[in-house]
Write a structure and sequence with these properties.
By secondary structure, this protein is mostly helical. The protein has one domain. The chain contains three helices and no strands.
Length: 94
Amino acid sequence: MNGHRSHQKEVKEFLVDLKDDLNKDIVGLISQNEAIAKSINQFKLVRNLNKTIVDSLDKSNTKYLLINDFRLFFGEENTRNYENFELSGKYSIH
């Protein structure tokens, strides 16, 4: 009976950690989506530049800086809890 409780406690801790990891992944994916949308808008701006627009910007002495904040998120940072649980050898996940 004690072994079963211990097993259940470890499984519960794993699931709580896994939930935290998944929530972190969601936040990272939302951030990546925002960065991609920003990059797309910047690329569209550059793509639509023409001589008239460039000349107009030059005449107005307007300074523009395009910042590309394009970072890929692969979710690798948050696999540790799952891998440790799986590699412990105590449990098999089907």
